[in-house]
Amino acid sequence: RLLGQFTLQSDTAAALSFAEMRVERFPDSWSAHEFLGDVSAAMGDTDQARTHYRHSLDLKPGNEQVLEKLESLDTRGGSLPHRPIIDPGPSGTPSQE
Predict the structure, then answer these.
(1) Are the C-beta atoms of 67 and 51 separated by less than 8 Å?
(2) Contact predicate 57/40, CB 8 Å
(3) Domain boundaries, the chain
(4) Entry pTM
C-alpha cells in the first residue's frame, strides 16, 4: 500500500501525482479530495483547492476541518498555514507504516 507523507517544499510533483492518483482510485473518498485540496492549496492553486474541498464536503457534509480550510483560503488570501501534508488514507484515518 502506498503511504502518502510528503512535505511540499521538497517534492511538489510527487505530492500532486500521489494526490491525483488517490482521487482517481477513490473518487468517493472525502479524505482523498481533502488531500488533493491540501496539495493544491500548498502549490498556490486555490481554485483547485476550493473545488476539492467542496467535493470533500459533498461526500462528508459538515466536516469542520475542511470548512476551516475553506475559510482559511478566503481569509488568508488564498493560502493555508504551512505544515507537512499527511495523507489520511482512503478511510480518513492517517496511514500507518
Answers:
(1) no
(2) no
(3) 13-74
(4) 0.73
Say what angle helices 30-42 and 46-59 make with each other, to 10 degrees. 160
Quick: pLDDT tens for 27-47: 999 999 999 999 999 889 999
The mean pLDDT of 43-66, rounded to a whole number, is: 96
Contact 67, 75 (CB under 8 A): no
Average pLDDT of the chain is 79
For position 92, what pLDDT does the model report? 54
The set of cell numbers assigned to 59 is: 461526500
**What one-character-per-residue DSSP string does 37-71 give?**
HHHHHHTT-HHHHHHHHHHHHHHSTT-HHHHHHHH
- Contacts of 67-75 with C-beta under 8 Å, sequence gap 24+, read 69/34, 69/37, 69/38, 69/41, 73/41, 73/46, 73/49
CATH entry 3.30.450.20 includes domain 13-74: no
